[in-house]
């Protein structure tokens, strides 16, 4: 029997992407509202895709340091289940977004080394979920979605936060089972690792990723 790992497939742009993620068994699908990203989607296109997301699959809007005007526009047009804040939003801004939109908020926290770990506790107080990702290097083109992993052993003894968390950053069908074993993650998120070319999802890779993540042979270390 497959395990109960929850998978988020991020950066969907077409109906075929949604179909591939949902039929593979994803729990969450993510739409990226960030013009610099190759996965950016217009509000209009996301609204059209969202209506075809099957019940039981949560629709997540990913934004980067979005102001209220952008969030107003997204949330009034797209039926959503969660907001993912993937920029340098402060804990105060996370609380403000939660209160203003009444949606659960997932805050991304970037990890490069042990000095980044206290931020996880800081955001755990205000966010509904945490997304623990690789911290982008200064010259990275994007604040996320760069296909970079971090040292998973940093999480080895620190996996019991007070809110649910998602492991992200450089995950692929080939390494996700190992990542789950190393970290004890019960939720994983992927974007570039299920793309054939940058910004274009591959249904076969999505299926392989979900299958590998949910593989029954993933005992925790
Ligand atoms: O995917 C993007 O283009 C993106 C842009 C800006 C911020 C975050 C983005 N993606 C998120 O980053 C993580 C890690 O991505 P990857 O799997 O390493 O490519 C991903 O899970 C998205 O939630």
Task: Describe the structure concisely for a colleague.
With 221 residues, the protein is an alpha/beta fold. Helix content is 29%, strand content 21%.
Keywords summarizing the entry:
TIM Barrel; binds the ligand O=C(O)c1ccccc1N[C@@H]1O[C@H](COP(=O)(O)O)[C@@H](O)[C@H]1O; two-stranded antiparallel sheet; 221 residues; 21% strand; amino-acid biosynthesis; alpha/beta; globular; 8-stranded parallel beta sheet; 7 helices; EC 5.3.1.24; tryptophan biosynthesis
Description:
The protein has helices at residues 15-24, 43-50, 68-77, 91-101, 118-124, 176-183, 203-213, and strands spanning 6-10, 28-33, 58-63, 82-85, 105-111, 129-134, 165-167, 187-190, 195-197, 200-201. The protein is α/β, with parallel strands linked by helices and 221 residues long. It has a single domain, classed as TIM Barrel (Alpha-Beta Barrel). The chain has an eight-stranded parallel beta sheet with strand order 7-6-5-4-3-2-1-8. Helix 2 (43-50) links the parallel strand 2 (28-33) and strand 3. It is globular and about 40 Å long. The two termini are 19 Å apart. It binds ligand LGQLAAA5. The ligand O=C(O)c1ccccc1N[C@@H]1O[C@H](COP(=O)(O)O)[C@@H](O)[C@H]1O binds at residues 10-11, 30, 32, 34, 37, 39, 62, 64, 86, 133, 142-148, 168-171, 189-193.
Note the topology:
Elements: E1 6-10, H1 15-24, E2 28-33, H2 43-50, E3 58-63, H3 68-77, E4 82-85, H4 91-101, E5 105-111, H5 118-124, E6 129-134, E7 165-167, H6 176-183, E8 187-190, E9 195-197, E10 200-201, H7 203-213
Parallel strand pairs: 1-2, 1-8, 2-3, 3-4, 4-5, 5-6, 6-7
Antiparallel strand pairs: 9-10
Helix pairs in contact: 1-7
This protein binds the ligand O=C(O)c1ccccc1N[C@@H]1O[C@H](COP(=O)(O)O)[C@@H](O)[C@H]1O.
Residues 10-11, 30, 32, 34, 37, 39, 62, 64, 86, 133, 142-148, 168-171, 189-193 line the site of the ligand O=C(O)c1ccccc1N[C@@H]1O[C@H](COP(=O)(O)O)[C@@H](O)[C@H]1O.
């Amino acid at each position: 029997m497959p395990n109960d790992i929850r998978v988020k497939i991020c950066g969907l742009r077409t109906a075929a992407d949604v179909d591939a993620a949902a039929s593979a068994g994803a729990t969450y699908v993510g739409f990226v509202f960030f013009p610099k990203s190759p996965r950016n989607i217009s509000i209009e296109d996301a609204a059209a895709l969202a209506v075809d997301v099957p019940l039981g699959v949560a629709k997540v809007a990913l934004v980067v340091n979005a102001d209220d005007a952008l969030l107003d526009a997204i949330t009034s047009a797209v039926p959503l289940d969660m907001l993912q804040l993937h920029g340098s939003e402060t804990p105060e801004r996370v609380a403000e977004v939660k209160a203003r939109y009444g949606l659960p908020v997932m805050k991304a926290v970037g990890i490069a080394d042990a000095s980044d770990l206290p931020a996880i506790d800081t955001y755990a107080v205000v966010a509904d979920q945490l997304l623990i990702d690789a911290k982008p290097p200064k010259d990275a083109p994007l604040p996320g979605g760069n296909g970079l992993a971090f040292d998973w052993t940093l999480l080895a003894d620190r996996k019991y936060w007070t809110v649910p968390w998602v492991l992200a950053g450089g995950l692929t069908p080939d390494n996700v089972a190992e990542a789950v074993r190393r970290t004890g993650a019960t939720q994983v998120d992927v974007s570039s690792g299920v793309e054939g070319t940058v910004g274009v999802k591959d249904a076969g890779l999505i299926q392989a990723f979900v299958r590998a993540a949910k593989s029954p042979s993933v005992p925790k270390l």
